[in-house]
Amino acid sequence: MAARLVIASGKGGVGKSSVAAGLACALQRTGHSVLVVDCDIGLKSLDIILGAGENMLYNWGDIICSRCSAQEALTKTSCGPMLLCAPNAFEPDYTCEAMQKLAENYEEMFDYIFFDSPAGIGRGFALASAAATSAIVVATPDEVCVRSGAIAAEKLAEFGIEQSRLIINRFNKKATIKGELLNIDDVIDSTRLRLIGVVPQDNDLAFSLCGGKPLPAKSAAYKAFRRISERLEGKRVSLKID
Asked: For residue 131, which of 92, 91, 104 has the smallest C-alpha distance?
């Protein structure tokens, strides 16, 4: 039975899709089978981040509308995890119930299924959350993103997702020491979420994932994703920021 997690933020621009891809790749490298579902209808990006190239033929909307099978819609990526691409536009058949049934097609095929939510707390957010049983809220350490993350967590609870964990993304030690960004405790207190990991600011993340290439194992971001993936598996891993 797959663990199904929605990756949410409330606000755009926090690196949510990169976090979804980074976690998926870290789990895949350790032998797990992982599916990533791009729920950003009309503004999909995970096909580029994960290096799907020209492999895309169908999207998850085609499954819901009976234009293809669940197996046919799976897209291979150069980074390892399988991908369900996002449709180009909303259709009336895209309902929360339909997304729940969509996820059931893959429960026995994968160990982890990540639903990458679009920014905001609108219809796309609701669809991404409908199929998940737990959540990861991504926030950068600034007042605007932290407040948006707290609101997203409240909405997730309204949807019945009681277990939401926090990832602080693009953490910069120097900026934090100077008081330009919030520190870790401030972010935890403001979002009222349990921390599962901190991903440092790392140029390798932009150069690798956004170019469809796996992160180097020596990069600070990959090490962070690896530690977070171990915590998702229930392992006790001390907090460390490279």
From this structure: 104
Tokens of residue 59, six digits: 């999207």
Tens-digit pLDDT string for the chain (242 aa): 899 999 999 888 888 999 999 999 999 999 999 999 999 999 888 998 998 877 788 999 999 999 999 999 999 998 889 999 999 999 999 999 999 999 999 999 999 999 999 988 999 999 999 999 999 999 999 999 999 999 999 999 999 998 999 999 999 888 888 888 999 999 999 999 999 999 998 887 767 766 677 777 788 888 999 999 999 998 888 777 76
The tokens of 207 are what?
């150069």
Helices (H) then strands (E): counts for the chain:
10, 7
One-letter amino acid of 231: R
> Cα–Cα distance between 112 and 35 in angstroms, integer?
6
CB 71 within 8 A of CB 26: no
SS3 state at 83: strand
Q: Quote the CA–CA distance of 3 and 199 in Å, as a whole number.
A: 22
Dihedral sign from CA coordinates of 24, 27, 28, 33: negative
Amino acid occupying residue 149: G
pTM for the complete prediction?
0.93
